[in-house]
Amino acid sequence: MKKYLFLLFMLSVYSSSFSQISEHTFDEKVEITVKLNYAIYTPDGYKDSKEDFPLIVFLHGAGERGTDLSKVAIHGPLQYIRDGNKINSVILAPQCPEGVYWQPHEVVALVKKVIKENRIDKSRVYLTGLSMGGYGVWATGGEYPELFAAMAPVCGAIYRPVYTNISHIKDMPIWVFHGALDDVVLPENSNKMVKALKDAGSDVKYTLFSLANHNSWTETYNNPELYKWMLAQKKDKTK
What we know:
The protein is an alpha/beta fold.
């Protein structure tokens, strides 16, 4: 019975608050064809409001790849909302195809398309993700720092180009999360990134959960302080 109720709830949420697309193109300097299913959550009041809303981009982990779009709500901000909480932000959750990893240019092409087609405050676009998605945060935020006001990678592996050239993200508000007992993506990954950022002058925040293994995302995304911190960040439009 519980399983039935869960499925019924998910179907009602996806039919009323989420939309998806299988393919799109974004033409800037070069046309990029992107094949990413995605879900979009819109908060209470979005439909009737004329204001621009912040946008949280969430990148899932390796286990949620594929074609079952409901998997993007198993963890992270959408799961937090599914549990009855509220976030006053549009949330974009793309789904990575099976057998591949997050590609920064594809993620950014989708983000720009969503910004163009929705009422989004361009100075308040945020990037977060877990495990493979944490790697995707370092990769995407590292290559396109001008797009994001803040980012929060969770138990993500080091993205080497970012690690060796940290200067372009040192001024971005960043909150890193990891489990001290993680034996899938070792905490040394986050330790090294945080040290490199601090050595470059960053005031990066770092939460290392002493008793958490790889699922440090549970404590991370269940913490309302994460969303409060994230939504308080605003990009300087003059830069």
